[in-house]
Design goal:
Elements (H helix, E strand, L loop, with lengths): L2 E4 L8 E3 L2 E4 L3 E3 L2 E4 L4 H11 L5 E3 L7 E8 L8 E10 L3 E10 L5 H6 L17 E5 L2 E7 L12 E7 L2 E8 L13 E3 L20
Antiparallel strand pairs: 1-5, 2-3, 3-4, 5-7, 6-14, 7-8, 8-9, 9-13, 10-11, 11-12, 12-13
Length: 211
């Protein structure tokens, strides 16, 4: 297997027990299977494990961008509970940019880990007041709201927005925070598992992990 097991809620070292992982902080849980090295082979393995959940990223990728991380919270033979994927590139205004999209069932905590927020689910902030922006997800425009990344307010190294898509939480985490406006210009979030042959030409790359 080219995917490695982790705790879905933190980066602590885990031990594997059957189809679950034991975390010193979050005890026993369904593992996050994360790509050790992003590649076409590991991505194909990810797509098998993550079905039927979507693996959303902007498509087509902006020029010069690469798929740099992906993973799924699930156990073999059981329905997956969360999926994430990341892509990275650069913009003239913000320099290096990392964009991560998470879809998950309530209570999993993967989106909170990616965005380094203080609660497991987006919470009461979602749906209150005007939306930060509307994301194009497939052929639908979905509202998303800002989520605080620290007790004392928004951190500048990342922006976190969240909403609901297909009955699950949808998180989008952008690093740095100033690059959030790029979401207005990139292509719609598309389920890469439905692309078929174009996946062969998907560019993959590796970056130091930010979470």
């Amino acid at each position: 297997m080219t995917l490695e097991p982790q705790c879905p809620r933190c980066s602590a070292q885990v031990t594997t027990t059957g189809s679950e992982v034991d975390c010193p902080t979050h005890l026993r849980s369904t593992p996050l299977w994360r790509a050790a090295t992003p590649s076409y082979e590991s991505f194909a393995e990810h797509l098998v494990l993550s079905r039927p959940l979507p693996t959303w990223l902007p498509w087509p990728l902006p020029a010069g961008w690469q798929v740099t991380d992906f993973g799924c919270v699930g156990a073999e033979g059981a329905a997956p509970r969360a999926v994430f994927a990341s892509c990275s590139g650069s913009s003239d205004l913000d320099g290096p940019v990392e964009l991560t999209v998470v879809t998950e069932e309530p209570g999993v905590g993967l989106g909170a880990r990616v965005g380094d927020v203080v609660h497991t689910d987006p919470g009461a902030e979602v749906g209150v007041g005007p939306a930060a922006l509307h994301l194009r997800v497939e052929d639908v425009g979905l509202p998303v709201w800002p989520v605080s990344t620290a007790e004392d307010g928004e951190a500048l190294d990342r922006a976190v927005v969240a909403g609901e898509a297909e009955g699950r939480w949808l998180w989008v985490v952008v690093r740095p925070a100033s690059a959030l406006l790029l979401l207005r210009d990139v292509g719609p979030l598309t389920d890469l598992s439905e692309l078929g042959p174009p996946l062969v030409d998907t560019p993959f790359g590796t970056l130091p992990r930010s979470w």
